[in-house]
Design a protein that fits this description.
It is a single chain. With 419 residues, this protein is of the alpha/beta class. 39% of the residues lie in helices and 24% in strands. It starts with a strand and ends with a helix. It has helices at residues 35-41, 80-92, 97-113, 126-136, 157-169, 186-196, 209-219, 223-229, 246-254, 263-268, 277-282, 302-317, 324-331, 333-339, 370-377, 404-418, and strands at residues 3-12, 15-25, 28-34, 46-57, 59-64, 116-121, 139-146, 174-178, 201-205, 236-240, 258-261, 286-289, 354-358, 383-388, 391-395, 398-399. α3 packs parallel to α4, α3 packs across α16 (404-418) and α13 crosses α15. The protein contains 16 helices and 16 strands. The protein folds into 2 domains: 3-57 and 354-388, Urease, subunit C, domain 1 (Roll), CATH 2.30.40.10; 59-328, TIM Barrel (Alpha-Beta Barrel). The longest helix has 17 residues, at 97-113. The radius of gyration is 21 Å and the shape is globular. It has an 8-stranded mixed beta sheet. The chain has a 4-stranded parallel beta sheet with strand order 5-6-7-8, sandwiched between helices.
């Protein structure tokens, strides 16, 4: 469909448009300008939006385990290792494909209703995640998990990588996702590097202080220097990176490597810190935002992550250390850059992943600066319309096809069996 989208403001990183109009043809932005002028130029195009709206690029969730909506609220208030060993891993051992489909369907629905148009996953039964994403209409980069002990869908790393290749042949966008330096041997990591074929690799790195110390004992150097030695830093999407050193930050900035801050999960699981985003920006590193899974976060809400990383930065580095405009980049353009996606900006030639935010709310009043209100004051429920590749997926805050009742029923069935 051909669209003319109107908004009081349109925000694209480092730029604000007023009385904005955006023209979309065949899923691509073809013109950006003044709405009144574009209205006369494109009289027959379908119109949507209006003066009460803010238009922003679609949000990118650069690290999640989407099917872990199944474990939302499971044994909260535990540190990472205890939570994994006592609460999560025993349940994950029982997972079936239909469970991951149900959990992913719920997670994809939650994300798109929150303005997320693309996510990078890392989990099991990723074909089920792909099916769920297609049903919801959200872009999915399927992170096939690889680890040195048996997983629910693969007994060995070789089997996991064979599964990844099968998914590629079925047309899914696959991202090889070794779990971490402590759960994957050098041999496994070499296999992952070869299987990635020069494309993006997704991995947990420097998640806790304990992990970093164990990697140093095992390899004699910090995690990112190990990955550099293995030739895996280029195009790496490094999740968490909470305990990265200044020397590693400089190394990361020299490579096409992206760091994904997941502030809610870092604070909930008591990592002691989050990605040093201000230091990372100062050396030119690419920083993105992720939610982690709903088990370690409980919400798949990138707007909330944006607010939290802003507040954390101001507390750690000072009030002027990080601006709302920079965090909007984390949520949009830098996430798209990490994945090689031609989106994340309101710009001619970009694919039309777009979100209309309803500003006609008490907490949006007054509005001196729409970017400030978006990051500090807005709620995920302010998301009104969501376009993915020019297709209207969410309208009036509701999914165009899926009903929550149906999805929740599938999740309850899985929950009851896993419990």
């Amino acid at each position: 469909m051909e669209w003319l989208i109107g908004a009081r403001y349109a925000l694209t990183p480092r730029k604000k448009l007023t009385n904005a109009g955006v023209v979309v043809e065949e899923g691509v932005i073809v013109e950006v300008g003044d709405f009144e002028k574009l209205k006369h130029k494109y009289p027959r195009y379908e119109r949507i939006g209006g003066r009460e709206y803010l238009l922003v690029p679609g949000f990118v969730n650069a690290h999640t385990h989407v099917a872990m909506t199944l474990f939302r609220g499971v044994e909260d208030d535990k540190p990472l290792n205890a939570w994994l060993r006592e609460a999560v891993w025993p349940k994950e051992a029982k997972l079936r494909p239909e469970d991951c489909y149900a959990g992913a369907l719920l997670g994809c629905l939650e994300m798109v209703l929150n303005g997320v148009t693309c996510f990078l996953d890392m989990y099991f039964y990723e074909e089920e995640v792909g099916k769920a994403a297609k049903e919801v209409g959200i872009r999915a980069f399927l992170g096939v998990g690889v680890i040195d002990f048996p997983l629910p869908d693969a007994k060995t790393p070789k089997e996991a990588l064979k599964n990844a290749e099968k998914l590629r042949k079925k047309g899914y966008r696959v991202v090889i996702s070794p779990h971490s330096l402590l759960t994957c041997s050098k041999e496994t990591l070499e296999m992952c590097k070869e299987a990635a074929k020069g494309d993006v690799i997704h991995m947990h790195v420097s998640e806790t202080e304990e992990e970093v110390e164990r990697v140093k004992r095992k390899y004699g150097k910090p995690p990112f220097f190990v990955l550099e030695e293995l030739g895996m830093l280029e195009k790496l999407v490094a999740a968490h990176a909470t305990w990265i050193s200044r020397e590693e930050l400089r190394l990361v900035a020299e490579r096409e490597c992206s760091l994904v801050a997941c502030p809610s999960a870092a604070m909930k699981l008591s990592y002691g810190r989050v990605v040093p985003v201000v230091d990372a920006l100062n050396v030119g590193a690419n920083v993105c935002l992720g939610t982690d899974g709903a088990g370690s976060n409980n919400r798949l809400d990138i707007l909330l992550e944006g607010r939290e990383i802003l507040l954390y930065a101001k507390n750690a580095w000072g009030a002027e250390s990080l601006k709302a405009e920079q965090v909007l980049e984390f949520m949009t353009s830098t996430g798209a850059k990490a994945l090689g996606l031609n989106a994340g900006e309101i710009k001619e030639g970009r694919e039309a992943d777009l979100v209309l935010i309803n500003m006609d709310k008490p907490h949006w009043t007054p509005c001196y600066d729409p970017c400030s209100n978006l990051l500090y004051a807005s709620l995920a429920s302010d998301v009104d319309c969501v376009f993915v590749k020019g297709e209207l997926i969410v309208e009036g805050g509701k999914h165009k096809k899926l009903e929550l009742e149906k999805v929740a029923g599938l999740v309850e069935k899985a929950k009851n069996r896993l419990a």
